[in-house]
Design brief:
heterotrimer, A alpha/beta, B mainly alpha, C mainly alpha, A: alpha/beta, six-stranded mixed sheet, four-stranded antiparallel sheet, 11 helices, 10 strands, 35% helix, disordered N terminus, C: mainly alpha, MetI-like fold, 2 domains
Chain lengths: 273, 293, 314
């Protein structure tokens, strides 16, 4: 399967403001003997939203988790190939994974705030990195909560437990928490799938604001969401060896109106998947 | 169908007969003289409390370390054998701990340790009170009892704590690690606080075990009611005095005093037990509810 | 908001290094603590095997104790005692335990059900010596003498919570639909219990039995004032004498159960504290026998649990 790169229409204008932030080169991911991902190649542009779509089980989450090396947590996971963050291969031997994870943040499918206060949730990250002074922390907490569009709702109750918030609020809290360490890239793994439609829309609006400062990569099984929200879309599917592959990668418009691959067309028009 | 409740009342009525006799003020200074029929329970209470508390102090860090290791760090092939070994530690009968204690552990470890402690901390004012006095050559002392108790309660605290840690949803670990925390930071700052109620329950369970432990303690504690407060001197615990004297107690007062000590022990462990159950129940409730819309 | 990133960069490597070092040290520490905690295990087992091994001769298992100074002799009385008392304990513990578990599983919300569950938890935490005192109060005192019977009762109380718990667990796993199905077919309550619930419960009962007997066999405190100990207990003589005297089996059993009796842990307790080296040596031997008994029973229990787990997974 050959990979389609960005079509010419989009590249020249943006390249100055939106250089390639993350570059995936010949990535293969194994869990033990099972090859979960095969020959993935893609380039993520800075401060754009890139969506990864595909039927369930095609390896979208595995790919996403490769970006911030969360797959390292699975003992049998193994990686071949390279992933460059801003020019630097993240899987090189001497790279500090803690550093990688600060620069690439993650929001999970189900909100998972710590059983601490809202304030402590958001300030957890910065404190890890040595930011101690109350004033600094206060600033960071407020900024992050504003960016996550949660500040107005919780500013009077920062000491309340994060678990007492509604689902949509908890997810925004998790976004604020991730933003508090000032990552360059934010990964979102189906961030709204556990939420009601209204909260979902709020998160999508949020993304439009966030993308001004952050590069966002989102995995979603909701095609309409991908179409609404993203600038670029990557379509993935499993091949006959049950290994995930990227079959098309292009501007979102192109993918949804004029895809090159027949399977992409079938998927986005709902004929299967 | 056994009415457990009936059992509880029965025990108390037995001992309460002793209560009515008035001489028994468990909180004052010591004297315990079967000949003169003069009984007060303080030395035993002190002995039990001291040895159990010291045992807890020593056991908790070790047990938590084990729990963390088994739950978070241990490679999976090692996990089952290690779990089994830790449980084995709990399966060894108390008398065998005592036997090993008397003949092996005490002379080789406790006595030298006691001497060292007497020379060092024993000279420090205030705390030194707990470490004064020469340790008997045999090593029979409260220190010996405390250390052996420690070993005996470690499996309890470690196993329950490990279960608590394993029950914490993975999403918490992922959330912390994704922010760039190191593994230890995740454990110390997120997981342990998350499970603190359950861990506390484990500790209280361990404490309950320590309070009630009889045989090993009796064999190594020296069974003496001398007045010293020190860890290094022989002492006596509530369960030990019952074990040693009950079968031969002749006077009614003697017997009933012993039973009353049994009552105190019973109530203590009862309270602790209820507290532990309450705490474990609280952890079960804390599992985050599904996100409300 | 760029200042934050700068702070992080400014601190640079030093803090990063500190965090990494702290991480490595603490993680290694937990492994170390685990090793430290396991040292006594091997230490004890090692010594018991070494010193106990010296005293183990065939006669150890088959002879009664000989008077001091004569050398030789064994602990047959203690072995018999342990078996007898454990047998009695099982007899006394299983029926009420199973009944209690059945009731509690089916009626979890009645006052009695709640009381049972609460009582089981409480009983599990009672110190063994207090249980011994209780055994004294309800059996020895009224009877006026110590006996294997009293010891059995005390140990049964010890075993009760475990049996109730494991049986109840297994019962709870039986889907309500099975029960209802049987009742809907018109089967009376007790028959339902027997044919549907009992097999499920059996698993739990066996588990509970294995676990609790492993513990009970090694307990000393409950027997201190119930069974007391009896160096002269001689099963063979009792049986032979009974047969010769044409006693009924009940009378013979009565004679066995109704006198003070020793057990392995009791014997250990006594011998270990005697000033006679020959008794102390025998104590080590008893320790070895006891340890093997307890560990083997424990292992059987674990294996059984594993088998049961696999069976459940289908």
């Amino acid at each position: 399967m050959t990979i389609t790169y960005l079509s010419r229409e989009t590249m020249p204008k943006d390249e100055q403001d939106h250089p390639v932030m993350v570059k995936v080169e010949d990535l293969n991911v194994f869990y033990g003997k099972f090859k979960a991902l095969s020959e993935i190649n893609m380039q993520i542009q800075a401060r754009k939203i890139t969506a990864i779509i595909g039927p369930s089980g095609c390896g979208k989450s595995t790919l996403l988790r490769s970006f911030n090396r969360m797959n390292d947590l699975t003992p049998s996971a193994r990686i071949e190939g390279k992933i460059y963050l801003d020019g630097q291969d993240m899987y090189q031997r001497d790279v500090d994974v803690v550093d990688v994870r600060r620069r690439i943040g993650m929001v999970f499918q189900r909100p998972n705030p710590f059983p601490k206060s809202i304030y402590d949730n958001v300030s957890y990250g910065p404190r890890l990195y040595g930011i101690q002074k109350k004033r600094d922390l206060d600033d960071i907490v407020e900024n992050s909560l504003r960016q996550a569009a949660l500040w107005e709702e919780v500013k009077d109750k920062l000491g309340v437990s994060g678990l007492s918030l509604s689902g949509g609020q908890q997810q925004r809290l998790c976004i604020a928490r991730a933003l508090a360490v000032q990552p360059e890239v934010v990964l979102m793994d189906e961030p709204a799938s556990a939420l009601d439609p209204i909260s979902t829309l709020r998160i999508e609006e949020l993304m439009h604001d966030l993308v001004k400062d952050y590069t966002i990569i989102i995995v979603t099984h909701n095609m309409q969401q991908a179409a609404r929200v993203s600038d670029f879309t990557a379509m993935m599917m499993i091949d006959d060896k049950r290994s995930g592959r990227m079959i098309e990668f292009d501007a979102t418009n192109t993918i949804f109106t004029n895809p090159r691959d027949k399977r992409t067309e079938e998927y986005v028009t709902g004929r299967f998947g | 169908m056994l009415s457990i409740g009936w059992m509880l009342w029965n025990q108390s009525s037995e001992a309460r007969a002793a209560f009515g006799l008035g001489f028994l003020k468990p909180t004052l200074q010591a004297s315990w003289d079967p000949v003169l029929d003069h009984f007060q329970a303080w030395p035993f209470i002190y002995g039990t409390l001291l040895t159990s508390l010291v045992a807890i102090l020593l056991a908790v860090p070790i047990s938590l370390g084990i729990a963390v290791f088994l739950a978070e760090l241990c490679p999976s092939w090692l996990r089952t054998p290690l779990n089994w070994l830790v449980e084995l530690l709990a399966a060894i009968p108390s008398v065998i701990y005592g036997l090993w204690g008397i003949f092996i552990f005490l002379p080789r470890v406790i006595t030298p340790l006691g001497n060292v402690l007497a020379e060092t901390i024993g000279k420090v004012p205030l705390i030194g009170v707990l470490f004064t006095g020469p340790i008997p050559a045999s090593g029979a002392s409260r220190l010996a009892a405390s250390v052996i108790l420690t070993v005996m309660i470690i499996p309890t605290i470690a196993a329950v704590s490990r279960d608590v840690l394993e029950a914490i949803p993975n999403s918490q670990r992922e959330a912390a690690l994704a922010l760039g925390a190191t593994k230890w930071e995740t454990i110390w700052q997120v997981l342990l606080p998350y499970g603190i109620s359950g861990i506390l329950g484990a500790v209280i369970l361990g404490l309950g075990r320590a309070l009630g432990e009889t045989m090993a303690v009796t064999m190594v504690i020296g069974n003496s009611i001398e007045g010293s407060l020190s860890l290094l001197r022989p002492g006596y615990t509530m369960s030990s005095v019952i074990a040693n004297e009950f079968a031969e107690a002749v006077s009614k007062l003697h017997t009933q005093s012993l039973i009353e000590i049994g009552l105190v022990l019973f109530i203590l462990t009862l309270l602790l037990n209820m507290m532990a159950r309450f705490l474990v129940w609280r952890v079960a409730r804390k599992t985050p509810q599904d996100a409300r819309a | 908001m760029n200042n934050i990133k700068n702070i992080i960069e400014a601190q640079g490597l030093k803090r990063k290094q500190r965090r990494k070092t702290a991480n490595a040290i603490m993680l290694a520490l937990t492994g170390l603590l685990t090793i430290i905690a396991l040292i006594p295990l091997f230490w004890i087992i090692g010594y018991v095997v070494i010193r106990g091994g010296k005293s183990i001769t065939p006669g150890f298992f088959t002879q009664l104790p000989k008077p001091l100074g004569m050398g030789g002799g064994g602990v047959l009385h203690a072995i018999e005692g342990t078996i007898i008392v454990s047998f009695l304990a099982t007899l006394f513990a299983i029926p009420p335990g199973v009944l209690a578990a059945f009731y509690a599983a089916r009626n979890p919300n009645t006052p009695l059900g709640i009381a049972l569950r609460f009582g089981t938890d409480v009983l599990a935490g009672v110190p063994s010596i207090v249980i011994g005192l209780f055994g004294y109060a309800i059996v020895v005192k009224p009877q006026g003498h110590y006996s294997a019977l009293a010891g059995g009762v005390a140990l049964a109380i010890l075993m009760l919570p475990t049996i109730i718990r494991t049986t109840e667990e297994m019962l709870k796993l039986v889907p309500a639909s099975l029960r209802e199905g049987s009742l809907a077919l018109g089967a009376p309550e007790w028959k339902t219990s027997l044919s549907v619930l009992f097999p499920a419960a059996l698993n739990g009962i066996i588990t509970g039995f294995l676990l609790s007997i492993a513990r009970a066999a090694g307990e000393t405190a409950p027997l201190l004032f119930t069974a007391l100990g009896n160096e002269r207990f001689d099963l063979a003589t009792i049986i032979k004498g009974g047969i010769a005297g044409h006693q009924t089996i009940f009378q013979i059993l009565g004679r066995i159960f109704d006198q003070p009796i020793d057990s392995l842990p009791l014997t250990l307790w006594k011998y270990a504290q005697m000033p006679y080296p020959e008794r102390v040596d025998q104590a080590w031997g008893v320790a070895l026998v006891l340890m093997i008994l307890v560990l083997v029973t424990n292992m059987i229990a674990r294996i059984w649990i594993e088998i049961r787990k696999k069976r459940l997974r289908g």
